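[audit] Reproducing an earlier prediction to check determinism. Same input, same settings, fresh worker. If the tokens differ from the archived copy the diff job will pick it up downstream; this log only records the rerun itself.
[audit] input (338 residues):
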Amino acid sequence: MFMLFLTFIFCCGVCYSGESDLGYSLSIGNAIDVFANYGDLSQVTQVVSADYEDYSSETVEPFREKNIRVFDNIISIESPGDSMVALNIQLCETFEELLAGYFVNFKIEGTEQPWKAFLGDWVYDEIMRTFGIEYETQEDNCCYVLVKLSKTHNTVQIDTTKQIHVKEYLERAIDGLDVNDTAAVRRFMKSYGTHYIDSYVTGDFIYQVFKYKRSGFHLLKSYVRRGRRRSGPDNLRFYFSSYFLKQVGDIRMASGNKRIEEWARNNLRDSQYLFSRPSLLRLYYNANVAFKLNDMLDNGALLGLGLKILKPLFRDRYKRDRYAEIVENDMKLWEVNA
């Protein structure tokens, strides 16, 4: 039986041991250089809706960043997705809170704002278009609500109960690395990476942003805190009416699937007073429509990613701590400047 849950959240040259060590798809335990595409990781990971019109589910991969196999014996734990999808509503005081909420399942060790690694180089106009809303140049003191329906296909993480072994060519490189020479450490980063893939989640989700007048947002927030949502969907609809809203964003797919986006615009229309517009809240009111959409969601997007600094490469504690320190310091600098 289909079930729909509603939740609220406040919100240089390299010598490899073989060609098989280099790849561009998701491989648990493999290392990437986060700085290679920092600020624009969304171009090599499918995490937000794309602007192109010729979408094909056969050509879109959730992850396309260059990565290197640095461990000999990685064992992963895989969990299949849940057949139940979740309608999630996040209340965000600011646009940056909205971005943090969207990327809540993305963890990059060394940074407190993972979203900047994916969109930090984008101008706000581009980011807002990606989220389906119009950019306004003047300060409008608005708040945002992110509504999304997600379906997990697969969750993978490293089995931490097993001892891992570093590739021999990495051991040789580490033995010859002077960690007190920051230039040498940064060359090592470019050659062998800064982080390894500790976990990831694939699947897809559909999302929509509602831009609120601040007064209306606070009324919605108060309504949610009182737990009144249990009294019926019509009450919730009232707080998503034009009386409180400044802008209703377009419906988007994390995978960029234009076919499903168009289906949603046509089949998730909500009529209030004289207005009719696409709204993901229709999924909350109508389980049959939610069930149809659930069948459409595939495995074209990256829903979560855990990246950890390559500390397990280093047996020597001093080298390990020094390497981590340089990576973390650089991460903070890139984060501030993004």
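[audit] rerun output stored. Observation attached for the diff report: The two ends are 46 Å apart (CA to CA).
[audit] end
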